[in-house]
């Protein structure tokens, strides 16, 4: 299908359910293209030929490394899908038990209240119902200056602004009531709105984002925070491992799952991507954001992109001096950088001029090298506005996989923190695909160190850094899966607040 200016929209969808173990073996080990083709749906034969023969973006013949990465993606998605329901049930149970214990003062308090008939039952969605992420890291206060109060400098990459963004990214895992209470009562800022938007891939309201400002009137700062990958949400993890892409003319190839999470199409009806992107490319008034919904009523709900864009335009019009930040952890980080990507495609120059920047934490890759180069020309000149923070062995920034012949590439300024919280500015985090025997032993040894450090954080750095018992359990899980425990928000909060610099010359950091 072609756009009005003649450009073609191309796509590739990886479909693990369309092939079996035999097909995986024949494609992965023997390089059988017919077996490999079963796992792909493409816009045209040329796209399929490129995928099976040259590995996406580059030529040079078929590569076993490229096939291996595809196989890992398919196998992981199959496994996560198989355990999807048990993961969901486990999440409900864990959330409930953690809240049951905290509301009743721990295990002994729970037993006492039970005997007294005074046991407090958690109510999901209430002001006291905290997410698993919130129990792992219960900190809600912002980093303070020498005078004991938050002093946020509105410069992209500044430590105080980075801390606010990380705390907002962590807070995005909570329900709307909890978020509002923290923003208004603890941060003394102004909660604006919470959105629970439709994700057509997951067929549910699973894309959450909230907006707040530094003050209710004459605001200087507006922050948009997207919720990240929930620990027990199989669909979120499947999205991180997905390799499917959709090519937007003049921009590049974009992760299809992230476009779906933003409400900009669905893979069952691939023409919906083009229709929605083209529809929103028309210069719509902010009062007419419902028009794309009318064009595609089967999408069912207003998209996160349209909802946030509409509200942001209204806020920028209301607060004449305000600028805005976009942030998110994990999957939320991918959506945070995707938001300005689509703004660029829609030529929302007036909006983009008022964007301070994008800060993401533990963010997966969102597109190919072409997309990265184009966006760097828009966001990194004359000064960098997109900062991507990565902690040590975090697995998610290494997804979807990337190698010399593979599609997905990171872009922007990468601030990499090692397990000693030493920060370096690097082009790419070490072990960018998180596999290889030469990394296995160091990663597990590092997990042992992180467990020991976690048990002594409070003594070493002060009571605010003391890790919860839930956090220690995550460290124990890290002994088996280092990249999973490294993904936890506590590592990112600690990195920003305790981090030191090494060989980096950036005056505003």
TrEMBL record:
Which InterPro entries does this one have? AB_hydrolase_fold (IPR029058), Fungal_lipase-type (IPR002921), OBL-like (IPR044819)
Keyword Hydrolase in the entry? The reply is: yes
| All copies of domain Fungal lipase-type, residue ranges | 223-402
Q: GO annotations under biological process?
A: lipid metabolic process
Q: Which CDD domains match?
A: Lipase_3
Q: Which first-to-last residue range defines the signal peptide?
A: none
Which keywords does the record carry? Hydrolase
* UniProt feature coiled coil, ranges: none
GO terms of molecular function: triacylglycerol lipase activity
A Pfam family matched in the record: Lipase_3
UniProt-recorded name of the protein: Fungal lipase-type domain-containing protein
Q: Which organism is it from?
A: Lactuca virosa
